[in-house]
Amino acid sequence: MCSFKMEILIPIITLGALGLIFGVGLAIASKRLAVQVDPRLERVHGLLPGSNCGACGGAGCFGFAEGLLSGKFSVDACRVSEEAVKEKIAHLLGQKIEKKIKKIATLHCYGGKKVKERYVYKGVQTCVAANLILGGQKACVYGCLGFGDCARICPFGAIEMNTEELPVVIEAKCKACNKCVLICPKKLFSLVPITSKVYVACSSHDPGKDTKAACPVGCIACGLCVKACKFDAVHVVDNLAAIDYKKCTSCGACVKVCPMKTIRVRG
Amino acid sequence: MTLAHFLTIFISAVFVYNVILSRFLGLCSFIAISKQTKPALAMSLAVMFVTTMSSIITWLIYRFLLVPFNLEYLRTISFILVIATFVQFVEMVIRKISPPMYRFFGIYLPLITVNCAVLGVAVLNIDMFFINGKAVQGSFYYSAFQGICVGLGYTLAMLLMSGIRERLELCNVPKAVKDFPLGFVIAAIMSLSFLGFNGFKF
Amino acid sequence: MKRLFGEFLKGIIRENPTFVLLLGLCPTLAVSVTVINGIGMGIAATFVLLGSNIIIAMIKNTIPERVRIPCYIVVIATFVTITELLMKAYSPALNRALGIYVPLIVVNCIVLGRAEAYASKNSVKNSFLDGLGMGVGFTLALILISGIREFLGAGKLMGQTIVKGFEPAFVLGMPSGALLVIGLLLGFFNVLKNRKT
Fold it and tell me: Per the CB < 8 Å rule, is B120 touching C78?
């Protein structure tokens, strides 16, 4: 009888003792190893968008929040948050923010499917990889290769490839985080202020004859746009038209006169 | 407790009976985490640490608590309690020492608790190094060493797999076999190649 | 009534733990060398799943939030120990065949996953049916995989030779064969799933 009771009691006591020791041990450890967290850190991190794009220079949104509290970053370094959110964060931290003009990623190429191919490419289907082989499969060595690296890297889904094999930027979603600018191997993207509606849809520095042979909508450096501009905002530099956005008023005079339809209105 | 014994344990735990490719312990985390090398390496090192320490602790508890009181059947419960507590403890320590590493591990750290490899090696130690409830000579050192070797085997398989899968990301695979089916077939080929180590004897 | 049956059925096809949720792969691949082993493991896992689902659904309101995972693990470990002892007593051959994978049912992702995701939020009746469905789904998946492996890998089914003069591919009986079979099966089910949409 006695041993039967012992057979039940001993396991209960043993396991109970083990559980108790572990539980108490963990409780003590959690007190001794407690981490002091600034309560503002969680609040600031909660207000941030959480897209972890890295445009601010911090290690994701959490790194940015830590940098904000330590004074390393200022609130307007974040390009993704809306104005109201940034003001809330600034208020929380006792900082002031200045207004910045919103920018949009713009693709300086309109060739896409219209451009002939020099060879059939069967390698890794990314722009970066294709660019390694003699500068890509397109006849224009400056133009978009169309494999969609930019669409894949955009954290906000603001870039889509259209039927012309060109990326299209959805203005409402673009946060100018700069990722597409950095990844395009042809360096075709630039961040243009949202108020400037006119842009040069070409990046080819080839002489006009060669550009025309490769692409039907490339810039031939004819100079008609320079003559048409009343604000001295367009110049032809190295066989390519370039717009100075400090002077451009988006009047559209250059768009009307361009024979190749290379200078375009965005959207 | 000869060198040959230790070498046999090393070869069998890392190569012949590799914990993932042969015993299938830790397969869930293997398939889920081995897509990139950096998380794979971090997870493997964490698992190696946990398997070594839990091998030691569970051996001590089995030898000095369960065997004397004839409680061998409580092995499963007590072992898993030990592992869960230990992983929780490690989580707290990492959080204190290095918050970036803690955030890097994220959810994978608590997931080591249910990693089959950890409980598996603890049970394996008991099955291999206890005869009729009595510890074989040198059993403690064999168990601890087996814990380390299982961790090494896990690391080896993870690193090989993540290297292959990183390259695989760039290839055009049919949609139906993307990710998991192809991962398993690759693991099958790797497992086949590891069979070549069969028959090692010292 | 139909809804209850639906709870049971979902574990078999739509949310099959092995092929759809990809849980509990460790024992699936390891024990599926013969159909008998597969069925044995399936029944053991189903028993543990049922027991733990019921108990956890019963005590879910009395466990504090922070210690719920260790509590679930202890409940599951208890049932696994019961299963282990029953198996050692009544079918020692099966116990030897399954080896260390019987105590490893504790950390089988299916059991803990269903406890955490379902039993902690639903009634006892629903948890029972869910556990039953998942267990049956798991057993069926095991039977499928071990059937293929045993027939093509050892030329037998349930220990009986079916086709005379059939040279089996031994690799299927080995670990690499298991990984190959499940990889191809997953790919096959993906094709079926993609064709539907």
Answer: no
Kindly identify which residue of chain C lies nearest to residue B180, measuring between CA atoms.
C183
Residue B33 domain boundaries:
13-197
The number of domains in chain A is 3
Which of A141, A158, A189 is at the close of a domain?
A189
Can you give the residue range of the structural domain that contains C69? 2-147
CB contact under 8 A, B184 and C179: yes
**How many structural domains is chain B composed of?**
1
- Going from the C-alpha of A235 to that of each of A191, A220, A248, C48, the distances in angstroms are 19, 13, 11, 78
Single pTM value for the model? 0.75
Paired tokens of B130: 């206890």
Strands A103-107 and A189-193, how do they pair?
Answer: antiparallel
- What's the confidence (pLDDT) of residue C64? 77
DSSP B199: T
A83 and A48 together in one domain? yes
CB atoms within 10 A of CB A218: 29
Degrees, nearest 5: CA angle B96-B27-C176: 150
- Which residue do the tokens 């985490």 mark? B33
Single out the residue of A35, B105, A81 nearest to residue A68, CA to CA: A81
Helix segments in B62-138, DSSP class H: 75-97, 99-105, 108-111, 116-129
pLDDT at A40: 80
Q: How far is B91 from chain A (nearest CA, A)?
A: 10
ipTM summary value: 0.83
- Among C100, C112, C194, the residue with its CB nearest the CB of B176 is C194
Q: Using one digit for the tens of pLDDT, what is the confidence trace for B142-172?
A: 999 999 999 999 999 999 999 998 888 877 7
Which of A158, A189, A220 is the last residue before a domain boundary? A189
Percent of chain A with pLDDT strictly greater than 90: 22
Provide mean pLDDT across the span A46-54.
Answer: 76
Looking at residue A266, which CATH number applies to its domain? 3.30.70.20
